[in-house]
Description:
seven-stranded mixed beta sheet, alpha+beta, two-stranded antiparallel ribbon, Beta Polymerase, domain 2, 9% strand, Hydrophobic Seed Protein, 51% helix
Amino acid sequence: MQIYKVGxxxxxxxxxxxxxxxxxxxxxxxxxxxxxxxxxxxxxxxPVFLHPKSGEEYALARTERKxxxxxxxxxxxxxxxxxxxxxxxxxxxxxxxxxxxxQQNLTDPYHGQRDLxxxxxxxVSPAFAEDPLRVLRVARFAARYAExxxxxxxxxxxxxxxxxxxxxxxxxxxxxxxxxxxRALMEDQPQVFIKVLxxxxxxxxxxxxxxxxxGVPQPEAHHPEIDxxxxxxxxxxxxxxxxxxxxxxxxxxxxxLGKGLTPEEEWPRHxxxxxKGLKLIKAVNERFKVPKDCQELALLVGEYxxxxxxxxxxxxxxLLELLQNFDVYRRPQRFEEFxxxxxxxxxxxxxxxxRSYPQADYLRGAATAARxxxxxxxxxxxxKGPELGEAIKRERLKALKGYKxxxxx
Length: 409
């Protein structure tokens, strides 16, 4: 039995990056031997075991053969005669197909170290094209390592195009797709993920609503970058620079989908794009079975982001309606995330990345003013039921009028 550290742990150590997760592969062992050593089995499809003390995953060396569509369409074979090289060749990228023994001696049959130095994301073998999830994974790695200068090798990008054209992407489950999308959006340069998907044609298959934004112009006075797709990537980039959570990043990606529906004769204006985009945002949310908090924020940002930009001009009644729609009294964090998304939208414009966004503090102040209305005095006056609700609304409107006057003074 020989045990090797494989994949990301080896890659990141060689890159000088922190190693978080460690994967191990065991060569020359049987399931019975692993169980006898106290390892606990967890793999349903192939033999994976948890170490009795560390809890880390150890997988028996295995080969795989395609026998169906999609990510799960493989037959796995694990036995003591499977070599380390045979196990490594089934991996996606050369930089993920290296192994180390306990003395840090490197096994690198597919030149992963060379590609690390060349800053290339290159597939290990033609079998790469058998797994559609790899299109998303490579785009995610491109986003993760863009800051180090990594790019996708042309021949790998070509395989990704072939995978896309084969229809295999449509066999991906919503859960697997979302897991990769969510991880990619949380990388340091998530806009690179979208760019790579677009380069290989996968964006048009996975998120045609986002792909449709490229080539759609906006008024240059407000958007010096002009192109709506380019703007969307810039907003996503700003969200990452400002360490925004996944909810905000997802909303940033989808906020302008309605502009993809504007007839060409109306360009570069996009009247009512906020409302038009809601059905598209819903469609994307449903396609990937997106978590509820991400779904809700994306829809609210899509509908109200221009309210955020015009916050200083809004009438108190409109401001109150906005606050009510966000339920700022019970869910203050969601409104804070809306403000963040609006600010990222404003900063995601060419040359305006550093411009201040006074609307943010103004909206926070408005929410504080509305929340400051006490309910107890109204109860003591005898208001109850629907009458109490109307009385609270009147008091909140009065508070917002006062707030707006004070802010304008």
